[in-house]
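Model: Ready when you are.
Researcher: Fold this.
Model:
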Amino acid sequence: QVQLVESGGGLVQAGGSLRLSCAASGSIFSIGAMAWYRQAPGKQRELVATITSGGSTNYADSVKGRFTISRDNAKNTMYLQMNSLKPEDTAVYYCNAAGVITIRTIQDYWGQGTQVTVSS
């Protein structure tokens, strides 16, 4: 059974930094693209950043220049370095792994989410 576990969330003042991690566990052969999403209270879940298995990245306009997505394929782990945080970055952050190949299946997975709160 594949699991994605996020960590690194917390409370930080505006202008501060946090680093989120998303570790995939299980009998995984490979993972395709991975992504970070976030959902603020009363709002729809939105895409924050994506990274392909080859390392190509894309970012939402709202986080460009402040957030950096990366991954370690050997560890099946993805990261999100968040700098210059703003109160509007407050949300639950979720990781997504697409095209996860195991001996039995190829499917997408979601983590349980980690809360990021930025105080003004």
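Researcher: Now this one.
Model:
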Amino acid sequence: QVQLVESGGGLVQAGGSLRLSCKVSGRIVVFHTMGWYRQAPGKQRELVAAIASGGNTNYEDSVKDRFTISRDNAKNTMYLQMNSLKPEDTAVYYCNTLSLTGIWTWGQGTQVTVSS
């Protein structure tokens, strides 16, 4: 069984930066995809960024050129570097993995609040 623990959220002013981390523990496997999602109050959870097992990445349009997803396999950790943050980036951010057998796993979430 895989466990995911996010960290790095907090309160930042618009234009600032944060780096989120997602530590993977438990039964470490090669994942089909790892990703970051976010959910703002009253809105559906949406994909922010994803990284495939081969290293290909994709981003939600509003975060392109501002956010960067990466992973450190040696540390079993995935990151989301967020720059030029905007108030509309305020949300709970969740990390997620999709295994090769189709099992989804979610972290507990970390709050990101961007003040104007």
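Researcher: Key takeaway?
Model: DSSP finds no helices and eleven strands in the chain.
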